Amino acid sequence: MRIRRIAAFGLLGLAALSVAALAVAVIADGGSGTPQPTTAAPLHPVAGNFKPDGTRLEDCSETVCLEQAYGNIAYRSGPARALAVLEEEIGSATNDCHRIAHNIGSASLARYDGNVGRTFAEGSSTCASGYYHGVLSRALVNVKSYGASALGAVARGLCAGDEVRALAELEYQCLHGLGHGLMITTGYSLPTSLEVCDHLRGKWKATSCNGGVFMENFFTSYGAQSPWVREDDPVYPCNEVAEQDKQTCYQLVTSRILRVIGVDWEQTARICASVEKNWVASCFESYGRDVAGQTHRDPEEIRDICAVARPYGGERECIRFAALDMVANDKTGLQAAGLCDRTAGDLRSACYEAIGSLMARSRTTHAETVADCNSLTTAPTDVNACLRGAEARLTAPLER
Prior knowledge:
By secondary structure, the chain is mainly α. The chain has two domains: 21-218, no CATH class; 243-395, no CATH class. The chain is 59% helix and 2% strand. The chain contains 21 helices and two strands. The chain has a two-stranded antiparallel sheet with strand order 1-2. β1 (26-29) and β2 form a beta hairpin.
């Protein structure tokens, strides 16, 4: 029985508990490379209810204080200023950066009086898209009904503004952030959240939303632990969800695997190679995304760790999704190109195609994609690979 159909087993009651009740010990990277238990962090302010005060960056030595200080900058001077200072002072590769960017999103939504479209258009995906997650993570908090149909009706409107739909990248980030928000709003009810994503009408929209749902399930924003994970099965719930949800789940599953077993790339590769046959590649895509994050997007380290997946048939997917993660955090694509240049042959082509495909989400014309690809490399083969990825993205239907 697939997760979307589970109701009588009592787990839905557990999933409906408040976030506060679920705020138990979670796992974090203590800096040693091995996940460590830690105390749940305080909740972020509800998006749109941010209250500015007199807190300044120079007053702060702890993350909670910094969240408020950066929120104050965003509220008074706009998100672009706050995100630029955050990037300069902390850097995009730290966990604190993502969490603080959440708060910048919350404060910016308050600055723009709850206008999701404008708030999205004014932000960026720095710090692993923490800003976008913050905008929508609690944007559904005032809905009057938590039924999937009612939530779906509200959800459809949140990412429908012209400012959001102007670029595929902004629409994706909105839908992904919506998935995070659905999990938080429903008290980590995975079945309800996935069902709401289905109400968005269109495979691309539903899949983008599902990505946020599963990411929040594996790596909760508020220090809670979702009831839809198991210590004795690090692949769960991907091996139980409905068929249409498996790809998105497996593309994020190594975040859970690494938390359960520790940062052991060889063992993680073995686990990916052993999952359901049709989803082995998706697991190695997740592997690549996590390799990029764990190495702070260092090209040489990524290449070397992706090579660990080679005997298991996962090196190509690892390189591709590491490159995608790098572009998501550096829109110039230059950091990812540094990874591609350390590979050769089919890996190199796949890497440049990945760069082109993601950069194209922020473009609308062929001329822009040509300029992007030529800014990365002078090698004709690499430029052509980048363009193949970009053109495939630009011509793909978004089912809007």
